[in-house]
Amino acid sequence: MTRGGYTGAGGPSVAVPEVWGKIPPRNKNFTGREELLATLRRNISGQVTVVVPHALQGLGGVGKTQMAIEYAWRFRSEYELVWWIPADQPILVRSSLAAMAPHLGLPSASTMGTEEAAEAVLAALRRGDPYSRWLLIFDNAHEPEDINDVIPRGPGHVLITSRNQRWEGVAETLPVDVFTREESVQFLSKRVPRAISPQDADHLAEALGDLPLALEQAGALQAETGMSASEYLRLLHERTSQLLSEGKPSEYPVSMTAAWALSVNSLNEKMPEAVELLRCCAFFGPEPIPRDVFFRAHPGLGPKLSALLKDRIRLTRAIGELGRYALVRIDLASRTIQVHRLIQALLRDQLSEAERARIRNEVHLLLAQFAPEDPEDTNNWGRYQQLVGHIEPSGVRENQDPAIRDFALNMVRYLYMSGDYASARRLVNQLLDQWAADAGQEDLRILAARRHLGNILRALGEYSAAYEINRAALDAARERGLESHPEVVNLTNSLGADLRARGEFAEALKHDAESLRLHEEVFGRENIATLRAMNSLALDYGLNSDYARSRELHQDVFDLLHSEEQNAGAATVLNAWTGLARAVRLCGDYAEACDLGEDAYYYGIEQLSADHPWTLRTAKDLSIAWRRAGDYEKSLEVAEEMHSRHFRLFGIDHPDTLAAAIALANIQRTVGRLDEAMELAADTARRYSKAYGGDHPFKHGCYGNLALLRRVCGDAQGARETNEKALAGLESKLGRDHHYSLTVATNLASDLAVLGDLENACRLGQGTLRRLRKLLGETHPMTLLCAANLSVSLRAAGEEEQAERLYEETIDAYARTLGLEHPDAVVAQERRYLDADFDPPPI
Predict the structure, then answer these.
(1) How many other β-carbons are positioned within 10 Å of the β-carbon of residue 783?
(2) Rounded CA separation 135/49 (Å)
(3) Element at 21 (helix H, strand E)
(4) 509-539, pLDDT tens digit by residue?
(5) 249 pLDDT exceeds 80?
(6) H/E element holding 773?
């Protein structure tokens, strides 16, 4: 909601917050609580956090939520931002926080991931930027430990509703009890105007124990049916006596159970299919249920529910009746219906185990049919998010129907693709625990769940755990002879990513070549799954220094994704586009890489937003291409921005943040900001060991960058020692004939020359140049850089004729490739040593 005023019924215009998010509608029958509201306002205006727990532990229906809603509406003019957060399920808390991001000028969860968006929101709230006067309402929180880490301690206010008295000591608590008798009478007089006397209202309140939810039920029933207070009291007495004789559970107030039963019985006589719909709603979560879940009947639903869903007019009336009887809360704006959790529990308790199983299965079918087919399509994410709060409460994980299990896996995939890795991990672990207990043997959906878990762990940076899960799952599938099953074939591609993450580049290449063969055999050449396998193999060729083959494969993927037969998502297209631009750069065609990368970057902004993870990766790669092409100003600007965004969105130790840090340190060194570059490079090199392991090639490459900075800063001996260790590490993992090894060897030769060891500098330079020419070609920029440096060392060693001949060949090659105005060519013409640095690609 934007700036302006809110005009209440017959009232003056009232200022509203800049942001007014997900606050339930105000209850027009709200009554009393004036003293409590006044106390709450006094307390909350002087406190950061205020908790409103239930006065009677475990008792529901006293109106805690309604009081929080009334507070939000009544004091809305005091705040710039008011936001409602369902807190009964941890899976909902962070997604609700993340939904605030765009309202705070932050990237949305769809572009940066739920976890990162939630953290960014919490940081903004703590800072009071852009709003310092904010109110967050956490509704129905259970244990303090569930949400204590996401309560922002800042300039705003936090209001919590809870049944748990353990909140005492964590925050200042305010007990909310049943109505006073005066409030009960006032409420009934408002709820049933002109139909109840103060004396009858008093008798009803006495019978219902002044419980607000029970009073709401009684008032709605009398308002709808015209039932007299005396008749209601007679039926209530009979029903209460029956309940007491049956020994109903003590956690439900008898008065509430009796009042609810009278409403349900009365509605059942009037419209039994409405009660059938209500029973169905009892097995959803207590969060709002999208009305479109009931849009059509599906195979597997019972005859009563099917008949209702086939009749749109009857269905609409049934929902209206439930609202009029106060059995559901209807939100017309969001097109949702919601059932109080206590009513849900009472409804479930009235059913036999067989009836519960039947209705629960119907709910699962409705959820699965409502979910779109493709959880990777960002256009479908809004609908998937509406279902998140109903997955765990409805017991989806217990359903053994293959179609429902596929739906559950799609929910995991959605959470993963949207960046909510913590929720995805929690859900997939719940599925695996349940399914493993149900299955007599390993079925393919368990295998799929393990593949998803491996992807999630890899995204979280837990590379070893991801590898172990995928390796074990693939071995088990192969033992059963399932190598060619589509799910197992998909798993082979996941394992290739694990091998890359472990630094086993040659093994990954071998593995992914076989994986691509399997994909083409099972899916066909132009299937999306096959193109992903082809993209993985292209990455492997790049990591093994075969840039020409990498470029060729990336080009094939890119072309096939743009064919008329494909309908690939924007993220998949951008991934391929960025891979192609990177391969072109690695081949030494810097100008073309800049053009491709810039085109891809603006495609990402247009299709996914500037802060989508793949757009950020594209921008980071573009900054590298600009640096290689000699456009240092553009490179530095983008590198600084990308490092800042990665740090804010993903944290300091995320692999993408580390890659952005290396790109920034390299351009800082290039433009002479040596102190900043040294500090960042040293810190990043240490963090690479933590992220990838102590012997990963990326770690050794980072230390090669650090060695380069040491020499540039005057410590040639320190540079030599660091480069020697880095080269030894790279040779042990990749061999000498690898681009990374030869980059460090080139720099080590410069270290030796600066230290005066010209003989060894020339010998190392000559061997390195020979290997580079064979690996990358005569005119690759890295080959020319090594040749230019060698000519300087040969000249210093007195080998004038050989040095001059190499110098002229190199300058001529620069003229034919990068141009003599390129910074590398300028340094070479000045007969100074050029610096070769390292940038880690994604895995």
Answers:
(1) 24
(2) 10
(3) strand 19-21
(4) 999 999 999 999 999 998 999 999 999 999 9
(5) no
(6) helix 758-776
Q: Select from 805, 803, 745, 734 the least CA-distant residue to 770.
A: 745
What is d(CA 46, CA 99) in angstroms, rounded to the nearest whole number?
27
C-alpha distance from residue 765 to each of 6, 394, 752, 761 (Å): 76, 68, 10, 6
DSSP state, 226?
-
Other beta carbons less than 10 A from residue 831's beta carbon = 14
Reference 213, options 84, 289, 327, 320; nearest CA is 327
212 prior amide bond cis, ω within 30: no
Query: Can you tell me the distance from the alpha carbon of 173 to that of 96, in angstroms, rounded to the nearest whole number?
Result: 24
pTM score of the predicted model: 0.77
Residue 130 preceded by cis peptide, ω within 30: yes
Average pLDDT rounded to a whole number, residues 546-562: 95
φ/ψ (deg, to 5) at 764: -65, -40
Q: Side chain identity at 125, as an amino acid letter?
A: L
Q: 106: closest CA among 244, 516, 98?
A: 98
DSSP 8-state assignment for residue 546: -
Would you state the pLDDT for residue 601?
95
Query: How much is the pLDDT for 42?
Result: 79
pLDDT in tens, 587-597: 999 999 999 99
Dist. CA 372–CA 306, nearest whole Å: 21
Strands (E), 658-742: none
Mean pLDDT across the chain, nearest whole number? Answer: 87
Query: Would strands 329-331 and 336-338 be described as parallel, antiparallel, or unpaired?
Result: antiparallel
pLDDT above 80: residue 375:
yes
pLDDT in tens, 596-644: 999 999 998 887 777 777 889 999 999 999 999 999 999 999 999 999 9
pLDDT in tens, 10-29: 333 445 677 887 788 887 77
Give residue 551's identity as a one-letter amino acid code. R
Sign of the Cα pseudo-torsion (769, 773, 775, 779, in order)? positive
**Whole-number Å distance between alpha carbons of 501 and 467:** 9
- Kindly give, in sequence order, each residue whose CB lies less than 8 Å from that of residue 37, ignoring residues fewer than 6 positions away: 67, 70, 71, 74
How far apart, in whole angstroms, are the C-alpha atoms of residue 59 and residue 220?
22
| Of 222 and 440, more confident | 222
**Measured distance CA(336)–CA(768) in Å, rounded:** 68
Residue 568, pLDDT score: 77
Task: Name which residue leads in pLDDT, 436 or 431.
Answer: 431
Residue 440 — pLDDT band, cuts 50, 70, 90? low
Return all residues near 156 (Cβ < 8 A) that are at least 6 apart.
Answer: 48, 79, 81, 125, 128, 131, 132, 133, 134, 135, 136
Backbone angles phi, psi at 302, to 5 degrees: -65, 160
Other Cβ atoms closer than 10 A to 475 = 10
Going from the C-alpha of 137 to that of each of 42, 216, 807, the distances in angstroms are 17, 23, 71
Answer yes or no: are the C-beta atoms of 466 and 498 closer than 8 Å. Answer: yes
- DSSP code string of 639-680: HHHHHHHHHHHH-TTSHHHHHHHHHHHHHHHHTT-HHHHHHH
**Which of 495, 546, 499, 489 is CA-nearest to residue 519?**
489
- The residue among 46, 19, 185 whose CA lies nearest residue 101 is 19
Cα–Cα distance measured from residue 678 to residue 707, given in angstroms and rounded to the nearest whole number: 10
Element (H, E) at 143: none
Non-local (6+) Cβ contacts of 745 within 8 A are 727, 736, 764, 767, 768
DSSP 3-state percent helix, strand, coil across the chain (nearest 5): 65, 5, 25
Structure-block tokens of residue 50: 């205020």
Helix (H, G, I), strand (E, B) or coil at 341: helix
CA distances from 663 to 599, 638, 659, 666 (A): 20, 10, 6, 5
541 within 8 A of 553, measured Cβ to Cβ: yes
Among positive and negative, which fits the CA dihedral 546, 548, 549, 552? positive
* Residue 146 burial (CB count, 10 A): 17
